[in-house]
Amino acid sequence: NAGVTQTPKFQVLKTGQSMTLQCAQDMNHNSMYWYRQDPGMGLRLIYYSASEGTTDKGEVPNGYNVSRLNKREFSLRLESAAPSQTSVYFCASSADPDLTNEKLFFGSGTQLSVL
Amino acid sequence: EDQVTQSPEALRLQEGESSSLNCSYTVSGLRGLFWYRQDPGKGPEFLFTLYSAGEEKEKERLKATLTKKESFLHITAPKPEDSATYLCAVRSNFGNEKLTFGTGTRLTIIP
Predict the structure, then answer these.
(1) Which of A29, A114, B16, B47 is the most exposed place for a label (fewest CB within 10 A)?
(2) A27 near B CB under 8 A
């Protein structure tokens, strides 16, 4: 039972390059999220998808785009990477935040460095 | 704006030495307070959800409690495998799906 799978685990980009972070969950969850974690700042929500076919901005969406490809997959794209986007990125999923105990399941993260 | 402050930032305990971690919060109507555990190089792992003042939840050596202004994570007779960063988060009754996370307490249990 894999849970939430993120790829890649590590990535180094040059300023201006683009890339897509992939996330897939095998728990048949409705909602999926992208967070970033920076030292001294806590986890911050970038984008989320409450259900297949919908996406919404979180706290720090600038410089990112997302695609909910199907119920399982939720990708995060950096169109033109900037050093300020150096961070650890986590994908998460939950069954249904409005009805359950809102338990989030997290992937193991992608460590991204933008030079 | 919702805020979460965790203290201390880091805590070192001897194996078997009980202690508590603090999570102070301000939120416009608390929908839920969450505790997560995060091991180095891993994503956070859910521990507890608390919904109302006075509520308590337990799991092995951990017990979480909630008041109107703060939550405590009590660790009784900890073992080295309890070493991790413990994250607190709150969700408001208002607004979107956003959880506001604290910066965590890094707990080290020395054998």
Answers:
(1) B16
(2) no
Facing residue for A103 by CB, picked from B46, B96, B101: B46
**B44·A43 Cβ contact <8 A:** yes
Please tell me the distance in Å from B75's CA to the nearest CA on chain A.
21
Which DSSP category does A85 fall into? G
* Residue B95 confidence (pLDDT): 63
Helix (H, G, I), strand (E, B) or coil at B72: strand
Residue B13 CB-half CA count within 13 A: 24
Instruction: Please tell me the number of Cα atoms within 13 Å of A29 on its side-chain side.
Output: 30
pLDDT in tens, B37-92: 999 999 999 999 999 999 999 999 999 999 999 999 999 999 999 999 999 999 88
Helix (H, G, I), strand (E, B) or coil at A32: strand
Based on its alpha-carbon atoms, the radius of gyration of chain B, rounded to whole angstroms, reads 14
